[in-house]
Fold this protein.
Amino acid sequence: MGAVVKLAMTLLVRDEADIVEAQLAFHLAAGVDVVIATDHRSSDGTTEILERYERDGSVHLVREDAERIRQSDWVTRMARLAATEHGADWVLNSDADEFWWPRAGTLKDVLGAVPPPYGVVRAVSRIFVPRPGRTPWAERMTARLALAAPINDPATPYRHVAKVAHRAHPQIVVRQGNHSVAGVELRELRPWAGLELLHFPLRSQEQVERKHRNTLAAWERNLRGDLARSRAGSAEAFHTRVVVDDDALARGLSSGALVEDTRLRDALREPRVDPRATACDDVSRAVDVAVLDEADAVRLHRRLDELAVRVGRYGVARRW
């Protein structure tokens, strides 16, 4: 174990003005020293927020104007910059709607406790549900989904995922979605649950509809436009389908499908992260370890299914 002298975070964003400043302020208060941010064609004020943090030296800003996103390539570039230009010890690879929560102390405290032979750790996402209203998203969104389904299960409407943090390295490769790394030999510490990932993907009607339209536009580049639109439906209908009203909230809390969680709201009200471990935290750690094990099983079964399909196709082709 050793002290984390410098902690970097990579951030890939597009049109996240409603959340990016809170995301930056939270992580800089929680122990991040520098954010390497790639801004992909933002037009809603996100760029100006990043430029303000760039001027005070806390953000290294990269701009990308390519039509199509190359997520893995761009995050890999940022993660390598963290090692080569900023001398980082550890790197968190994040999206604007993700908040890395240390279970005790700061992010540096948690990562500094990882023994030297290990270079990769994972955090399980906690997905907060969208709520109606016009108040700031962090004040409204204090209910999250319980971890009732296996992580990464494709049948789950809100997919719980695991994201990795890693020791900085100039040859690191961050794979699609920030779920794993490659390129260098870094041992993963398992089981481990020192970090959580608080995730706020859908925050307001305007943001949900904009995200829906951006997704539809991406589909149209890869599918016929009519087919993409028929699959997607309208942006307004999508928001109506996903928002959790008061009745649904009460039912979810009563059944245990939803959990009240005000940690981020409270942290943003008072910009200081200093959580205290409790008995509930011990239970939560155990659940995280269990779902990470389930994640591996789900991925393994999925790969086996895909392999069986490929083998079947190959066998048919050989017979003909």
User: Anything to note?
Assistant: The CA atoms of residues 212 and 235 lie 6 Å apart. The chain has two domains: 7-199, 204-244. Residues 204-244 form one domain. The first strand starts at residue 7 and ends at 13.
